[in-house]
Amino acid sequence: MDYWPGFIEAIGHPVSSVAVKDILAALGEAAVVSKTPDIFNDPQGRTLFYKFIVSGLEFGFRAKMLNHIHIFVQGHEGYSAYRADMLNRSAQAWNREEIIRHFGPA
Hints:
Layout: H1 4-10, H2 18-27, E1 32-35, E2 48-52, E3 57-62, E4 65-71, E5 85-86, E6 89-90, H3 96-103
Antiparallel strand pairs: 1-2, 2-3, 3-4, 5-6
Helix pairs in contact: 1-2
């Protein structure tokens, strides 16, 4: 399954929005929820993380809006590798040069 359209739709929306609720429900995995420590003293407020360990995804909410989605294409720090498609291709099929060509440099 390609969740990419749902990811794009959800960015910039609060967790209570239909777009975010729909993509979280589509994953079919209960999230592990955590926050950055108070000691970080972030002016935008603490980041709220929804971690989908088995799916290989992490959603980060800053200032109550979905700010970023980490996609782990390899297993990392307890996360499984993301196994769904990205833009109609396996996430593992992409290489660095293709990512830069498609999305631009960091």
